[in-house]
Write a structure and sequence with these properties.
The complex is a heterodimer of chains A (about 180) and B (about 220). Chain A is about 70% helix and about 0% strand. Chain A contains 9 helices and no strands. In chain A, α2 packs antiparallel against α3 and α5 packs antiparallel against α6. Classes of the chains: A mainly alpha (about 180), B mainly alpha (about 220). At the A-B interface, α2, α3, α6, α7 and α9 of A face α1, α2 and α8 of B.
Chain lengths: ~180, ~220
Amino acid sequence: MVMPANDEQLLEQFREPSARPRVFALLAEKYSPRLYWHIRRLVVNHEDANDVLQNTMMRAWNGLPQFRMDARLYTWLYRIATNECLNFLEVKRKRMSVSLEDMPDRMASQLHAEPGFDSQRLEWKIQLAIQQLPEKQKLVFTLRYFDEMPYEEMSRVLGTSVGALKASYHHAVKKVERCITGQD
Amino acid sequence: MERRSAICRQELSDWGSLLTDSPREMPYALPAGYFESVVLATLQHIQEADADNRAPIPGREIQLLAPRLAAADRAMPFQAPPLVGLPRVTASLRPAQTVSSPEDPKETLPKIRQWKPLRVAAAWLLLGMATWLLRLQTQPAALQDTSLTLDTSLFPLESVDEASLTGYLADTEAGSERIGREASWEEAVQAIVLGDMTCLDSSLAALPAATLLAFANETSLSFP
């Protein structure tokens, strides 16, 4: 049997109940890496990222029958993953009784505890800088800088206008630069 | 994908950013074979969730979980004191005021059901309250509620006629392909509020302050 190449064909096959596990496995295989790294950049810890990814895929499984391709599939998945991340971080913050102001420092501490962390390497400096950004700027920066997502797609993921996203990204980039050069 | 990558790098380059050629690799460690196993784990997770969602039969459920508990007597072991004073209370109630039981839903605790004008008035009141609450929620938050203030001492803001304002907007939207080049409304607002003049297009200096504030509210920009 020839494997379908695009998302529209996969979604068409998903409508058949008996084919759903197989089709969903194909979709998960295709999008899991991208979604995982998007999540991991926000939650830092692998176990947390895995939990959020599982929740994301669960919501995708439940929502796929109603998905009508009015947006791209990966945009829809990113939106679910982003919302799951934000919910997870909020629950985590309340569970740890950490204030909003202290959360960046807490996430930075988690980064320091990551295996292989090296504060001298630029890749780690960028990750540390990201954790200092306000929530919206953090999302915009990670989606644009790492996932190279077009602003129009990002607008559907985050529900913000294209112009505002460009401005947010501009400020986020400047802030990250100041962090990694030690000016902050 | 390569074109998208080139656009993103060009954007950073236009801003003179240090991040233009910075690495995009993730420095995080990942368990070996994680992505190969995550799909299987996801499907297992889904199957378990589907099994949990099927409504369990109560008798069968307790039998599986705890057979000894399933066999225990369900009678309440508690004792209750005699109901002193209650007969006087119940005697003073008129039949229409007794609490309705599930078996007798037509009892008149909700007397309102029997009086049509009161029902209509209550419905209108609820509708009015709902409309008022909806209006409250859709009103944009005042800029003064955030920490934003418009620093008009930096440069004077003069009113602009609508035609030139609309023309400027059209130019800005059309010029959005030149990422990072044109100062947009949003960047103008941020520049004015933050006092950062480096990205400000001088032609925006004539925009009315109220318009910029309204736009900042609408876009809900996140300011540091």
